[in-house]
Design goal:
There is one protein chain. The chain has one domain. Helices cover 12% and strands 20% of the residues. The protein is built from three helices and twelve strands; from the N terminus they run βββββααβββββαββ. The strands form five sheets. It has a three-stranded antiparallel sheet, with helices on one face. Helix 1 packs antiparallel against helix 3. The chain is globular. The two termini are 25 Å apart.
Length: 226
């Protein structure tokens, strides 16, 4: 597999590009190279350590752990500073994820925090309430226990859930502390807007935005459309 823009050498050598992405492989173990400069995306892609999956993975999940990747990358915070974040995604979407977040970083789009969902014990409710941006989580669709979420495949990402809440069929904000952001005409930092950098970047990558659904899921982007 070759991740072109990411220059992620999962089958080869240490490398770096304008996105400052590094990765190397030694035998069956991935070794991370030196940390690049903080004023760039500085992405690093590795296999996913067991502790970074935690309760987000269990028997019967549609994607085995070896098909997932841990992406460590910089992002701008609401404090105007650069922070280091982590996402777990499917190996096949590493390229578009780095394209999107590279553009978001260049535009200084603020992200509250970016932690793997294992840090919340696999709880989507807790992660949303903490305004956490996350990706892989082998779970059901919120409000529909009979259907797996696209997050279970690792090709969906939720961004700033408080500023971009999910609205259920009763019109309830999820998370509840995102209620003040249901009025999308009052644009605030971290809010995803139809003409904003994230919509453009994900559209160019071929991903879908849940904000166009009825009811809307403003935080949600996915490669599979679900």
């Amino acid at each position: 597999m070759s991740h072109r823009l990411a220059c992620v050498a999962l089958a080869g050598t240490l490398c770096a590009t304008a996105l400052s992405c590094t990765a190397a492989k030694s035998g069956s173990r991935f070794q991370v190279g030196p940390e690049p400069a903080a004023k760039s995306l500085s992405a690093q892609v590795t296999a996913v350590p067991r502790e970074k999956l935690g309760a987000t993975y269990h028997a019967g999940c549609p994607v085995p752990p070896e098909r997932l990747r841990l992406v460590r990358m910089n992002h701008w915070g609401f404090d105007g500073k650069v922070h280091r974040g982590e996402l777990v995604v499917h190996e096949d979407v590493v390229d578009p994820v780095l394209q999107v977040f590279g553009k978001a970083f260049a535009a200084r789009f603020p992200i509250r925090r970016m932690r793997v969902t294992a840090a919340y014990g696999g709880s989507d409710i807790a992660a949303m309430a903490d305004d956490n941006t996350s990706a892989f989580n082998c779970r059901q669709v919120t409000g529909d226990p009979d259907r797996l979420s696209r997050h279970a495949w690792g090709d969906a990402i939720d961004i700033n859930p408080v500023e971009n809440p999910y609205v259920d069929v009763q019109g309830t904000s999820r998370p509840p502390n995102g209620r003040t952001h249901l009025d999308r005409s009052r644009v605030t930092p971290g809010m995803i807007t139809p003409d904003g950098v994230l919509i453009r970047a994900f559209r160019e990558a071929g991903w879908y935005w849940g904000g166009r659904w009825s009811p809307p899921d403003y935080q949600h982007f996915s490669a599979g459309g679900g």
